[in-house]
Design a protein that fits this description.
mainly alpha; 6 helices; 74% helix; elongated
């Protein structure tokens, strides 16, 4: 499979995931919690990186940087999704009140406090809503972030193989 095709499939997957999340929000009425919003932003970041990968696929340094950033974003997304899965399975008493939206928190609070509140989680972060094949959205997000991490590792290893082959 070509490098450019990997990036294109990654971008199409991200677009599909974001369209699905917007459908669930605006048509089905499932309002995203702050952790869900952060996962969406992380998916969007990976999508932008895949777009750059499509555009810069001929530059070895560009591919390497994009792959590393994509891997870092995937790991960050796995942490966010893992935290939400943890909150769903082990709700805390600290997150019993409903929190405000991510947009409001970013406008009203310092970034450090926003991150603390996001990872603390609220009651909406501990609720299981939409499910498909017995997995809810946070569990599917973890699966997708893991697949994007594997894609990044594959492309990075392939880059090193191409580098050593051309030496």
């Amino acid at each position: 499979m070509s490098i450019r095709l990997c990036y294109a499939l990654g971008l199409l997957t991200i677009i599909s995931l974001l369209v699905l999340s917007l459908y669930l929000q605006h048509v089905e009425g499932i309002i995203p919690c702050p952790l869900c919003s952060m996962q969406r932003l992380t998916f969007a970041l990976i999508g932008v990186l895949c777009l750059f990968g499509i555009l810069l696929y001929r530059k070895p340094w560009g591919r390497l940087i994009i792959n590393q950033l994509c891997a870092a974003a995937s790991i960050f997304g796995m942490v966010l999704a893992g935290r939400q899965i943890w909150l769903q399975n082990f709700p805390t008493t600290a997150g019993t009140e409903c929190s405000v939206s991510l947009e409001y928190m970013l406008a009203a609070l310092p970034l450090k406090e926003v991150l603390q509140k996001i990872f603390q989680g609220g009651v909406e972060c501990s609720q299981r809503t939409w499910e498909f094949l017995y997995l809810d959205m946070a569990e599917w997000a973890l699966v997708w972030f893991s697949l994007f991490l594997l894609m990044s590792v594959y492309l990075t290893l392939r880059e090193f193989k191409l580098f050593h082959h051309n030496k």
